[in-house]
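job 3f2a | input accepted
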Amino acid sequence: MKFEIHAVGKIKKSYWRDAADDYLRRIRRYAGAQVREIRDCPPHNKTAAQIREDESRRLLDGVPNSALLIALDSTGQQMSSADFAEFFEKKALNCAGHFCFCIGGSEGLTREFTSRADVVLSLSKMTLPHELARVVLLEQLYRSLSILNNAKYHK
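job 3f2a | predicted structure (155 res):
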């Protein structure tokens, strides 16, 4: 399996960056994984819709055609950790195991982006800071791989 996380903005706080890096290292024990950061759009004289459009377009430009596109959005489907692992197990054959997760900026993703996605996923009904959302996603990816590999991490 191969995982790509495309996210608008950099992780600025060192503790979130350390956590993200730790989970990325753990994931790489089982699968290929990389993070691609898209520069966030400065709000100078732009509406929220214009920012959302610009960031969504730049996120979509980098998504490989072979990957299953998974958009993170509050309107998406929620899964338990076990369901998330089962999702990868079932979908891996259909997309050659290549998954691309996209996390929008503070204004979110456009409707066009989420409608183009193969799957729209919500990590929580609660609003999460983007840095924390990335850490939660990476942790759940690692947990899913642990489940699929019968490792002791998931209890």
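job 3f2a | The longest strand covers residues 68-77.
job 3f2a | closed
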